[in-house]
Here is the input.
Amino acid sequence: MIEPDIKLAQQLFEQLRAESFDGIGITRDTYGAGEQRAHDLMAQTARALGLEVRTDAALNLYMTLPGSDRNAPAVLTGSHLDSVPRGGNYDGAAGVVAGLSVLGGWVAAGLQPHCDVTVMGVRAEESAWFPVSYIGSKSAFGLLPAEALDIRRMDTGISLSEHLRQHGGNPEGIAAGEAYLSADKIRCFLELHIEQGPVLVEEQLEVGVVTGICGSLRYRHAQVFGSYAHSGATPRSHRSDAVVALAEVISRLQQHWANMEAAGHEMTLTFGQVNTDVQQADISKVSGLVNFSIDMRSRSPQALALMDQHLQAAIAQATQTHGVRFELGERTGSKEAEMDAGLRNIMQLAAKELQLSHRELPSGAGHDSALFSNQGIPTAMLFVRNGNGSHNPDEAMDLQDFAGGARVLARVMAAQAGLV
Here is the structure.
């Protein structure tokens, strides 16, 4: 079996870090300079390898080693190249680098697959910049709602459509639903990714084969309105305290979460943003406003629906008890996805043959693989062990672990592309 070009991978990781370091962490901003530099680096590398390089209306990047039968359904691999603000160097990028390292090894050996094999650099996977899930992959299939193009980036205040135009994209084509990818022309989609939780590290395992990807239910811009009042002069019986009301809701939902886990439900619940109004809140005031967000994730739509019911009930009780008013705002989310059983088996067999310690596990985080799977495309994900979690500057994937994951990926790619 031809080895991936791990030296190339190391060089790419070093260049990505050098071009993305913001003084604290890694920032590759969606449809901004950071993400663009990463795409330019990958495209330049692909051209040096002799690969075909193309982009679509959303500027997703496609780097293809042509097969002997150009009409056969293609094998796709890859991931995203954007990051959260002040994130880590490997989240997303490891999947693109892995794909290029595999093709780099094949090119050096003079191999030609039966079908086209494409490494995809996906745009805009991180919804930290625009509050929409899977902008790049949805656009590739013509599935991004036209109204999403009017959403403004959280830091610049500029619309998605304008950010696209600035970098040479075609928002009109996206709005018209023009699709670059078609499910019937894709044999499979394979995504290597760092694990973003602690399972592989704690169990001292090198790689993990993903069983499925959680869907989400989110309230990004929720609020609770009470009444501002003097902290010393207002007795408890006369308060409408927004902070206390929200704290009660959070406490009740934490207990419901524990009960649901005890009953066998698999899910997570996060209040990622909780803040009072900086213009009005004060140490000597009862708080009249709290802004907050809620993120629920599970592979079970039923579990998400049940927790949403618990949320509504907790809000109703807190409203009555504390005389406040809740506004949850728009509810958004993403659909859960199952990974292909056949591809999972091939991945596990490859890991076993390579003598890599491994296990199956679900993904609590969302990934573009979910979008591919929900188009009916056989899809599989491989996690590589990574210390310190993700979405922070301290991601600590070891290059040796990455090399093991790349070798697993190479075997699955070769089997699907007719090289073995």
Summary: The two ends are 9 Å apart (CA to CA). The chain has twelve helices and 17 strands. Residues 196 and 389 are 5 Å apart (CA to CA).
